[in-house]
Model the fold of this input.
Amino acid sequence: MTKFIVSALSLLLLLPMAGNAANNARLFKNPNCFCCDEYAAYLRQNGFDVEMVNSNDMDTIKQRHNVPEPLYGCHTLLLDGYVFEGLIPVDSIRRLLKEKPAVVGLSLPGMPRGAPGMPGAKRAPLKVYSFTSLPPRHEVYDVYAD
Done:
């Protein structure tokens, strides 16, 4: 009986951890890219646990995770079975994780000024794209004008 109680209590202790699994992110970045470090800090401030992985071969990582070349950003984030490419605002990440659409992930291409982790004011609205691999396509998912 004691073993049963200890096992049951152990399972209860694990439940809160299971609820936070979606917040565990793995961010692949070039070791010389400091905006990625700022972006990871932004994610942490918004409740995500971020593991940083330095790579000198980001193109291979992007290709392995089916990111279309026109949507390449400065880093690749893996989270809850999705790929998040570039400096995507957390509102878009949370929306996708809640809705769970049939997509590979989201992308904010390039390194636009004013995006999370990038200094400076926005010069144009930030367009976040969703993308799939079969068939390969992408479409606007969110736009941040302010």
